[in-house]
Specification:
It is a single chain. With about 210 residues, this protein is mainly alpha-helical. It has twelve helices and two strands. Strands 1-2 form a two-stranded antiparallel ribbon. Helix 2 runs antiparallel to helix 8.
């Protein structure tokens, strides 16, 4: 399957670097976080909460809740991962939203080669964008000024739309979206994601 353009990874990294800079993180700290954590939404949540005055435990808990979604994603593709534990562990680090979705094959298959290429190229652009965003954060100013605040939802919508060709997929996605929208104003950060994830798993099993 053709690989999607990777420019959103750079824009996302640039956005995160700006947010991290405005939250008080230096260039080195922000860049190392992107290189070692490699979890966009969780990093945004953690740094935003930290910059707003929340303690480190709150920021880390929220980031962890957001990353729980990788558990069922990993379970779903586990049959395609073989070899010793250390190899499976290393390859599992390449499971991110973009690589997991784009590596799916017709008929239920999974292409690890596609996953590796997407994940590694995204990582390089994500880290580079973070470093530049953190370095020039004060000069860039507000993300809304350049529309960078819309990058994350636009990217996820772009990944979601091709998956909605089947009626079952549409029903599950709509139910999960409605649950997330309804609970976001009242639930702690990260919990709406878990509730939507639970609804998606139940919907797929029914």
């Amino acid at each position: 399957m053709p690989l999607a353009p990777n420019w959103p990874a750079f824009a996302l990294g640039l956005s995160f670097g700006v947010v991290a800079s405005q939250a008080g993180l230096g260039v080195l700290a922000a860049t190392l976080m992107s290189a070692t954590t490699y979890a966009g939404s969780a990093q945004f949540a953690a740094v935003t909460l930290f910059g707003a005055g929340a303690g480190i435990p709150v920021a880390l808990t929220t980031a962890s809740l957001l990353n729980v979604r990788y558990l069922p994603m990993g379970i779903a593709v586990a049959p395609w991962f073989g070899g010793p534990w250390w190899r499976r562990f290393g390859e599992a680090q390449m499971i991110v939203d973009e690589s997991w979705i784009l590596a799916q094959q017709p008929g239920g298959g999974f292409d690890k080669g596609v996953m590796h290429r997407i994940a590694l190229s995204f990582l390089a652009l994500w880290v580079t964008g973070t470093a530049l965003g953190a370095h020039f954060g004060s000069g860039i100013g507000s993300l809304e000024r350049f529309g960078l605040d819309a990058i994350v939802p636009a990217m996820f919508l772009g990944l979601l739309v091709p998956r909605l060709r089947e009626p079952g997929e549409r029903r599950v996605s709509l139910a999960a979206a409605l649950i997330a929208l309804a609970t976001t104003p009242v639930a702690p950060p990260g919990v709406p994601v878990l509730l939507a994830l639970g609804a998606s798993l139940l919907g797929r099993r029914s």
